[in-house]
Amino acid sequence: YQNYNKESTVLTDKYSNATVSPFFDLWNTDLNLMIMEKENVGKDNIPDFAFFHLKSLDVVAHRYGVYAGETYNYLFFADYMIKKVIRWLDKNVGEGKYTCVFFADHGGTNVIANGTWIVNEDVKSAMETKFGTGILRNISNDQIWLNTDMLKEKDISLKTVALWMEDNFKWVFRAYTRYDVSGEPEPVKAATPCCDDDDDKGLCFISSAAFAGTNPLDVFKGKKGEIRIAGGTAHIPVMKEAAKRIAEINPDIQISIAGGGSGVGIKQVGEGLVNIGNSGRAPTDEEIKKFDLKLFKWAIDGVGIVVHPKNPVKSLTQAQVKDIFAGKITNWKVLGGEDKGINVYTRDEASGTREVFFEKALDKGEISPKANVVVSNGAVKSAVSNDPYSIGYVSVGHIDETVSAVALDGVVPATDTVKQGKYKVARGLFSNTKGDPAGLTKLFIEFLFTPEGQKIVQENGFIPVK
Q1: Helix (H) or strand (E) holding 145
Q2: Which of 149, 180, 337, 387: CA 20 to 30 A from 12?
Q3: pLDDT at 1
Q4: DSSP 8-state class, residue 387
């Protein structure tokens, strides 16, 4: 198997970022099935053993967090890979003639909301300049091991270092300590500014609004705890901005934000896995009754059709859209574009965006099984912006210069046309809780309805409800 190992080494060395995406394991799955085929697995009466290591899940979850959109995206593809293996076994070994065992080497804590950062020499140098040579013991998996004995001698807490990092590196949104993860109190004095009067930057986060009257964020002062949010991907820009402003006024409140789609949000909040489950549709009566859900609609949004900016097709009728997504119209030439095939992108069935588009744009018509399925508004936008012959649909709040909005029956999907009621493919954006919200969850939802919260809604391309 030297050739296989050589190929694997070349791939990981030359395309190391591939391991942080589903691509690597899609390739890995095909490679393993090819080996099993060559080894005649299941072709005799001697038991065979095959081991599949879907490594990218470990890499993605370590880097982005267990509830991050990137992790959900990988799991969607993992289901596809497992289905592919099962189908191969059914065909080549026989249904009921094999045993599959699934296991993992460890679990994970929900820490990082989204994104990661690279610890480079500049970061190391800055940390040693600030806290002293020898402060860093090790760096691995985007985590930093500090010299805690040295910190104790200097009477500096881990939280102080974390706050300094957030304040001095613009790409660091939140830094977490081992005590943030475990929930245990740190056995040193609380975080204090580690700067002197000559420093340009301190660790104090003061909102200018505090001097101009009532600040709706003041209710978060003095609080401590965590808010876990998951679900609809259209909501994420608003959630992130709200979380950022809350963190600026009180870094002791940790807010994790993940996607996954409306169905995931409703299910996870109903099962108590998150505090807020976002959805791009109102939960059904059955879901409300089953999970004792309380609904909070804080914005109105449209779902617009998008194509690549260079695509000359800028307007379609509803009948044409239905035929495209059903696979009846397959070439752009029929619609006045180039003589090229149409690549259709849609969302998974857990998506509230898909449900609204399916009901109001497609009139509950067929979606071709050949359509490419992706798991978020951002993923659709990315796919369409990189595919000149693509078509998809996204939240109006996600439409920007990277894609081109397509008029539906002469009406362009935009905030104004949705607000005026001219563009009909629209829906509410909901944040749902299990029972009446309390504590930090209640404060967070109430903030979304304040003038500042509704301004965030408007700034992200949605229509405020107040």
Answers
A1: strand 143-146
A2: 387
A3: 32
A4: -
Q: Is the pLDDT of residue 232 over 60?
A: yes
* Alpha helices (runs of H) in 66-111, residue ranges in sequence order: 69-92
- In this structure, the number of other CB atoms found within 10 A of the CB of residue 337 comes to 17
**What pLDDT shows up at residue 196?**
32
- Which residues on neighbouring strands pair with residue 299, listed in sequence order? 429, 464
Q: Name the average pLDDT for the chain.
A: 82
The answer to whether the predicted template modeling score (pTM) of the entire model surpasses 0.90 is no
**Amino acid type, 441:** T
Report the length, in residues, of the chain: 466
Tokens found for residue 109: 């804590």
Cα–Cα distance, 238 to 271 (Å, whole number): 24
What's the rounded Cα separation, in Å, for the pair 101 and 30? Answer: 19
% of the chain surpassing 90 pLDDT: 43
SS3 460: coil
Residues sharing a CB contact under 8 Å with residue 196, sequence separation 6 or more, in sequence order: none
Q: What is the reported pLDDT for 411?
A: 96
Bridge partners of residue 395, in order along the sequence: 303
Q: What is the pLDDT of residue 460?
A: 84
Backbone angles phi, psi at 231, to 5 degrees: 125, -135
Cα-flanking dihedrals φ and ψ of residue 103, to 5°? Answer: -155, 165
Tell me, yes or no, whether 296 and 306 share the same domain. no
Looking up residue 447, the CATH number of its domain turns out to be 3.40.190.10
Inside any domain, residue 450: yes
Question: Do residues 296 and 440 share a domain?
Answer: yes
At residue 174, the pLDDT reads: 66
Assess whether pLDDT exceeds 90 at residue 191: no
Residues 244, 324 share a domain? no
Secondary element (H or E) of residue 197: none
Q: Can you tell me whether residue 373 is helix, strand or coil? A: strand
pLDDT of residue 211: 29
Is 353:394 a contact under the CB 8 Å cutoff? yes
Q: What is the pLDDT of residues 149-179, one digit of tens each?
A: 888 888 888 888 888 887 777 666 667 777 7
Give the residue numbers spanning the domain of 225.
208-300+435-464
Q: Which residues contact 260 (CB under 8 A, 6 or more apart)?
A: 67, 69, 72, 230, 231, 233, 268, 350, 375
Residue 199 in domain: no
Beta bridge partners of 300: 428, 463
Q: What is the pLDDT of residue 113?
A: 42
d(CA 169, CA 115): 14
Backbone torsions φ then ψ of 343, nearest 5 degrees: -100, 110
Q: Which amino acid is at 224?
A: K
